[in-house]
Amino acid sequence: MFSLVTFLNNVIEPQSMCYVATANLDGETNLKIRQASLEVAGIIKEGQLVNLDGKIECEEPDRQFNNFVGTLYLRGKSPISVGPDQMLLRGTQLKNTQWIIGVVIYTGFETKLMQNSVKSPLKRSQVEKVTNMQILILLLLLFGISAVSCVGATIWNKIPWYVSLHRITPHNHVFDILVFIILYHNLVPISLLLTLETVKFIQAQFINWDEDMHYEQNDLYAMARTSNLNEELGQVKYLFSDKTGTLTCNTMAFKKCTIAGIIYGRASFCEFNDPKLLENFEDGHPSSEYIKEFLTLLCVCHTVIPERCGNDILYQASSPDEAALVKGAKKLGFVFTTRTPYSVTIEVVRHLRLYCKGADTVIYERLSKDSLFVEDTLKHLEIFATEGLRTLCIAYTDLTETEYQDWLQEYKKASAISQNRIQRLEECYEIIEKEFLLLGATAIEDRLQANVPETISTLLKANIKIWVLTGDKQETAVNIGNTCKEIFIKTLSINHNCGDLGNLLGKENDLALIIDGETLKYALRFEIQKKFLDLALSCRAVLCCR
Q1: Which residues of 299-318 are buried (b: 16+ CB within 10 A; e: fewer)?
Q2: How many whole angstroms separate alpha carbon 354 and alpha carbon 435?
Q3: More confident residue, 255 or 487
Q4: Phi (first) and psi of residue 128, to 5 degrees
Q5: Pairing of strands 17-21, 31-35
Q6: Residue 284 backbone zone (phi > 0: left; psi -120 to 50: alpha; other: beta)
Q7: Which residue, among 252, 242, 321, has the nearest Cα to 544 in the 3D structure?
Q8: In sequence order, what are the residues at sequence separation of 6 or more whose Cβ sits closer than 8 angstroms to the Cβ of residue 514?
Q9: How many Cβ atoms are within 10 Å of 89's Cβ, its own excluded?
């Protein structure tokens, strides 16, 4: 695993940034951005690599892919913080970057990839386990019968009244046992194993040829990678699934927004299209300043990287939500053009402001008492959520130069320490992330994949219980559930006493459990987790949402 102290590509990425693919580690296909230390990059750009002298102090090897705490000490320089954004893990692939310069931190079994590697278990079906046990019993029975027969043969040969015309030769007991094993070998059904393997292989081929599992767009068929577990498919009782990218297409489209208590966006199958927004902005509407700040925030509050392609700008983003918002702002005339490690450039006026976007549960607790449109925006969020749209709140706060510089000093101190760095950084963020003024909220659509409702309905008919994890609001989760052929018939809360179900507790009921993350945190406590499990097992579907 490399600690990416610096990597340079003056032709493609002059800001010492690169893209990496982490699909081998987390399964995500979006490219991630890694940013090298600018202090070291400056030294190398000056051609002083041979004079680079220092050391790196870092934490002990662990299994956490997203955590790394280290400090780079260069001779004559201040300590430089090294974190996950400066790391290239073993197993990732470098993309859109020709070459890098780095320092190796962990090797061999100390790398995070090897720390997470486990011995692959031998996957055997229940039928195979039962068959193996029965054959083992038959083998023991075969050996037992052969041993008894061998003893009987020995006794028979020593009976006095037995008269032989020839001299009796001594017997080899091992040879006698082998003879009886051969005589009784039909007791063990050797052909049964061959028959089972043949049937499994043919079943796997039928799975591969199944037209109902043929994705015609890419001409992809289902692939049975192993035939050991075919018969287990009919015994599946619980199905655990993520929502984004699994049930949905993971193709985000900016659909609607609410700014200063006004909803913009039409209910259509295309992306955001509402001339009223630009009309209010250009005609001096009372909300024009809020519209300007709202669109400015969409331009600057993200991790998107712009790439020039002739006269056009393409956006590379690790989050499809952020890419959708930046593209939406671009269509409205607020174009994000350039990013550096410490700033971004857009085609509007520059401000010293702190912009923030996030879930309503996070933003609302950080709002100032002077913030407007709080109740209206909350109502609009519920409307968006009931339409199955993903929502984010948008807010900002003004900073003075003194406030910013004081906070920046604290941030640099927190970034340089090795012990409890993450906790200190969180405390540092709490200092500045407060007294926000609400601008509005965005609504992004992530459509369900083809035939998802029909598939889930079929699974429910097969008595398969479905548990889904999502980061959406509860209203959005319920809407998606209703879209999926009425998975969610009734909503329960962990606060309901399990006694309300009475004798139905522990039995399958035509109910669904929807629980948010905050409640789940308490539901998993030791003293009540058994009751929560009993409640969950009593429902046909369980959904954990934001």
Answers
A1: bbbbebbbeeeeeebebbbb
A2: 11
A3: 255
A4: -65, -40
A5: antiparallel
A6: left
A7: 242
A8: 474, 477, 478, 481, 488, 491, 492, 542, 543, 545
A9: 21
233 or 138, greater pLDDT: 138
Tokens of 60: 């002990």
Give tens-digit pLDDT for 402-435: 888 899 888 888 887 878 888 888 889 888 998 9
More confident residue, 71 or 513: 71
SS3 104: strand
Amino acid at 447: R
What are the residues facing 9 on neighbouring strands? 13
> Rounded to an integer, what distance in angstroms lies between the CA atom of residue 249 and that of residue 327?
18
What 3-state DSSP class applies to 19?
strand
417 phi and psi angles, rounded to 5 deg = -80, 155
* DSSP structural state of residue 366: G
- Residue 543 parent element (H or E): strand 539-545
Distances (CA, A) of 404 to 135, 158, 415: 75, 105, 16
Say which amino acid occupies 420: N
Tell me the backbone φ, ψ of residue 122, rounded to 5 degrees. -80, 115
Q: In the 8-state DSSP scheme, what is residue 10?
A: T
Instruction: Answer yes or no: are the C-beta atoms of 411 and 405 closer than 8 Å.
Output: no
**Both structure tokens of 22:** 């982490």
Given a cut of 70, whether residue 493 has pLDDT beyond it is no
Q: What is the DSSP letter of 120?
A: P
Comparing 205-214, 387-396, 508-517, which segment has the lowest mean pLDDT? 508-517
8 Å CB contact between 226 and 120? no
Question: Which is the catalytic residue, given 26, 53, 242, 534?
Answer: 242
Q: How far apart are CA 285 and CA 259, in angstroms?
A: 12
Q: 3-state DSSP call for residue 237? A: coil
Residue 287 burial (CB count, 10 A):
18
pTM score: 0.71
State how beta strands 305-309 and 262-264 pair.
Answer: unpaired
pLDDT band at 35 (very low <50, low <70, confident <90, very high): confident
Say if residues 384 and 441 touch (Cβ distance below 8 Å): yes
Phi then psi for 101, rounded to 5 degrees? -120, 130
- Tell me the C-alpha to C-alpha distance, in Å, between residue 358 and each of 99, 297, 344, 365, 391: 35, 12, 20, 11, 8
**Extended beta strands in 268-404, E state:** 305-309, 312-316, 336-340, 343-346, 353-358, 390-398
The 70-74 sheet, strands edge to edge:
54-58, 70-74, 80-82
Q: Where are the strands (E) in 26-128, listed by range?
A: 31-35, 54-58, 70-74, 80-82, 87-88, 93-95, 101-104
Active site residue 242: yes
C-alpha atoms less than 13 angstroms from C-alpha of 31 in its C-beta half-sphere:
17
End-to-end Cα, the chain, rounded Å: 34
Give the whole-angstrom CA distance, residue 500 versus residue 195.
51
